[in-house]
Amino acid sequence: MTSSYQQSNILLIYRILDYIVIKMNCHLPNPDALERTAKMFNALGDSARLKLLMHLREREHCVNELAELENAKIGTISARLKILFESNLVKKRREEKYIWYSLADQHVALLLDNMLTHANECIHTHK
To answer: What CATH number labels 4-125?
Structure first.
């Protein structure tokens, strides 16, 4: 059974895909692009990972900082960041003994903005 949160995510995915199709003036994106998009949305389907992205939206952070901000274990934060990294939503760089994470690019920030705007609109329209 799908929750209303999952249903709104699915609707958002369809809206984004419709926009892509219209914008690119084609019938459907290639299967690889759809697969990568689905992987990204799966990574975004966890509120704890979304919170990390929101921190990274503000500025670059190392794992220790994120663990402190979230009051979580470093291993837990690292596992969440690994999923976000493998989904191409964040990038990382090493500086001495620290690994610094940031959003992969401005598209991710825009995606977060659009999702939050949509989620807030859903709250107001479903009361």
So the answer is: 1.10.10.10
